[in-house]
UniProtKB/TrEMBL annotation, chain A:
<feature type="transmembrane region" description="Helical">
    <location>
        <begin position="93"/>
        <end position="117"/>
    </location>
</feature>
<feature type="transmembrane region" description="Helical">
    <location>
        <begin position="129"/>
        <end position="153"/>
    </location>
</feature>
<keyword id="KW-1133">Transmembrane helix</keyword>
<feature type="transmembrane region" description="Helical">
    <location>
        <begin position="272"/>
        <end position="296"/>
    </location>
</feature>
<feature type="transmembrane region" description="Helical">
    <location>
        <begin position="21"/>
        <end position="42"/>
    </location>
</feature>
<keyword id="KW-0812">Transmembrane</keyword>
<keyword id="KW-0472">Membrane</keyword>
<dbReference type="InterPro" id="IPR052923">
    <property type="entry name" value="UPF0718"/>
</dbReference>
<dbReference type="Pfam" id="PF03773">
    <property type="entry name" value="ArsP_1"/>
</dbReference>
TrEMBL record, chain B:
<feature type="region of interest" description="Disordered">
    <location>
        <begin position="69"/>
        <end position="95"/>
    </location>
</feature>
<dbReference type="InterPro" id="IPR048447">
    <property type="entry name" value="DUF1980_C"/>
</dbReference>
<dbReference type="InterPro" id="IPR052955">
    <property type="entry name" value="UPF0703_membrane_permease"/>
</dbReference>
<feature type="transmembrane region" description="Helical">
    <location>
        <begin position="33"/>
        <end position="54"/>
    </location>
</feature>
<keyword id="KW-1133">Transmembrane helix</keyword>
<keyword id="KW-0812">Transmembrane</keyword>
<dbReference type="Pfam" id="PF21537">
    <property type="entry name" value="DUF1980_C"/>
</dbReference>
<keyword id="KW-0472">Membrane</keyword>
<dbReference type="InterPro" id="IPR015402">
    <property type="entry name" value="DUF1980"/>
</dbReference>
Length: 338, 263
């Protein structure tokens, strides 16, 4: 990556003007044609309009949380010395994982915020397994999510407790599994990113902050757009009566709601309301929906692919899914007994 | 090129967010609660975009001076793989260049910007409503059906009416005239539902609440917003999970699309 930089920097500067003009012309043409095409499609108020509304809604909803996440992660990169994390986190991964998992309760955001933060934590020397435990627990057990769960399930404190326990258990278990079996080469994209001068200590702190925020926001945004498009497609394509027909079937209902959480990619701060509206489903299935959603969903997989690489995402997402469903089922049974 | 595009994207995206809030269109996608977070995000984005432009210009002026002597010399002595850590302005410049390196998926930001600038999609309508059920989901235990106060007609939210009609057997509705606002979703035999979507967080989690209008004086016009006054009539179904909320219409009047399309 860095080897081609000097030559490309020069080529960029000389091509810059013609490139800008070309881009300007392309933009004008795209605007003129795009407007007509879009107006035709959306004006119909059919599937395309619905898809576009859901797509825009997911992007707009995620933006403030993504911004919160990248500003926080930029601050970690620029203003927090690397030795800070090695000082507060236990040296052994086995201990660092639960500490980092519990620390997830401190980040009041949804899943979009936690991915860039986890990436920058690793960059600052936090053990990958611990950063991943934080990545999984932060969107699931922070106060905002727990309060919204309590509001969605009034008179059922078991759901709030169950969600907290199952989500934290998922984060810690996945962290431990990663600490035991994870390989550094699965984090290749991340290793490449280490070369970013954004983390170079010769640059002034504010400039490092600015570069980190700009980079993380721009890149994560691209994957957010992919994830939002996929989720909007599922939202418009899946026939809703498929879901209600399986409500009574024990094992299948859990798997269907877990899979639904993955494809719908609803923000962790809202998913409790959706889970509560899925009446007729057993407690374990509703819990699975709320435990899986914040840790595995389409936009999250896209964001993780972008931040950590494909080799990582193809292993991490299925592992997390299995552990999360297991944790939700066990916790659901315990709540049912209590 | 990339860093310029990045700055343009930031400024555009920030401007789009502010425009959505000022025009009130953001309510078609998210909850009112997000108003100030959206404004803050828009302002920060514009600030980062402008800052990026400024750094870029300053950086390029410095680069032009140093490039002729520095770049050639480095390539000659260190080879093309040399890293420019001996030269601070150059290193910063590399930093800019790496921005957006790798996937180039940052370009995809252009998609939502284009859509939201050119043709902001409308609030969810009858297409989304038809995908949901006409029955009313069981309300949480915290929902209490208190007696309706005020003179007839009593304005009610559509989901409130539907829950009272189905889950409280219309106890609080008998003898009252109510007023509901929503859009028309046609169904079989020229009948139609008065529909309102309920949103908890963003339009992705919307679900419809529907009230079947009995004896409508007007035919259905898909997605037309109307205000209906009328009285409750019981559903024929016995199981509340099977029941549809019914309203015998007295008047149906067209209204403009409300600023807050969801409940």
């Amino acid at each position: 990556m860095s080897s081609s930089t000097p030559t490309r920097t020069r080529a960029d500067a000389t091509d810059s003007h013609s490139g800008t003009i070309g881009l300007l012309i392309a933009a004008i043409v795209a605007v003129l044609i795009g407007r007509q095409v879009l107006a035709l499609l959306i004006g119909g108020r059919g599937g395309v309009a619905t898809w576009t509304t859901v797509f825009c809604a997911i992007v707009v909803q995620a933006l403030p949380f993504l911004m919160l996440g990248v500003v926080l992660s930029g601050a970690i990169t620029a203003f927090v010395p690397a030795r800070f994390f090695s000082a507060i986190l236990p040296r052994r991964a086995a201990l660092a994982v639960p500490v980092a998992g519990a620390a997830g309760a401190l980040l009041p955001g949804c899943e979009c915020a936690s991915v860039p933060v986890a990436g920058r934590l690793m960059e600052r020397g936090v053990v990958p397994a611990a950063a991943l435990a934080f990545l999984l627990s932060a969107p699931a057990i922070n106060p905002i999510v727990l309060v919204s769960t309590a509001v969605a399930f009034p008179g059922q404190p078991g759901m709030v407790v169950g969600r907290f326990v199952a989500s934290l258990a998922t984060a810690v278990l996945v962290g431990w599994i990663w600490a035991r079996f994870g390989r550094p080469e699965w984090l290749t994209r991340f290793a490449a990113r280490r070369l970013l001068p954004a983390a170079d200590d010769t640059t002034p702190a504010f400039e490092r902050f600015r570069l980190a925020v700009a980079h993380d926001f721009f890149e994560a945004g691209g994957f957010l757009v992919i994830g939002a498009a996929a989720a909007a497609t599922m939202n418009v394509v899946i026939p809703p009566d498929w879901i209600s027909t399986v409500a009574g079937i024990p094992v299948l209902s859990i798997l269907v709601l877990a899979a639904l959480a993955v494809v719908l990619s609803i923000c962790s701060e809202a998913d409790a309301f959706v889970a509560a509206s899925l009446t007729g489903f057993p407690v374990s299935a509703q819990l699975a929906f709320m435990v899986v959603g914040p840790v595995v969903d389409l936009k999250l997989i896209a964001l993780q692919t972008g931040t950590f690489g494909r080799a990582f995402a193809t292993r991490f997402a299925p592992l997390t899914f299995v552990v999360a469903v297991g944790a939700a089922v066990v916790t659901g049974l315990l709540i049912g007994v209590a | 090129m990339r860093r310029e595009i990045q700055a343009v994207v930031f400024v555009l995206l920030g401007a789009v967010l502010l425009k959505l809030v000022i025009s009130g269109e953001y309510l078609n996608y998210v909850q009112k609660l997000l108003k100030f977070p959206l404004i803050a995000t828009g302002v920060v984005l514009i600030a980062f975009g402008v800052l990026g432009f400024l750094r870029d210009w300053r950086g390029r002026a410095a680069l032009d001076r140093s490039r002729e002597r520095a770049a050639d010399a480095r390539v000659r002595t260190h080879g093309p793989g040399a890293h420019a850590d001996d030269d601070v302005p150059e290193a910063e410049e590399n930093g800019h260049d790496h921005v957006g390196d790798g996937h180039g998926v940052g370009w995809l930001w252009i998609l939502p910007i284009f859509v939201l600038v050119l043709v902001p999609p409308p609030a969810l309508g009858s297409f989304a409503a038809e995908r949901g059920a006409a029955t009313v989901p069981k309300p949480p235990k915290s929902v209490k059906f208190t007696a309706l106060n005020g003179a007839n007609p009593v304005p009610l939210e559509v989901h409130d009416y539907a829950q009272r009609a189905v889950w409280d057997d219309g106890r609080t509705l008998t003898g009252r005239t109510v007023e509901l606002s929503g859009f028309m979703t046609p169904h079989s035999g020229g009948n139609w539902y008065l529909t309102r979507m309920k949103v908890n967080c963003c339009a992705a989690d919307a679900r419809p609440y529907q009230v079947e209008i009995v004896d409508s004086p007007v035919p259905a016009v898909r997605d037309e917003w109307v205000k209906v006054t009328g009285t409750w009539v019981p559903s024929t179904a016995k199981d509340p999970f099977e029941k549809v909320a019914l309203l015998k219409a007295t008047t149906v009047n067209g209204i403009p699309t409300p600023a807050q399309p969801y409940e």
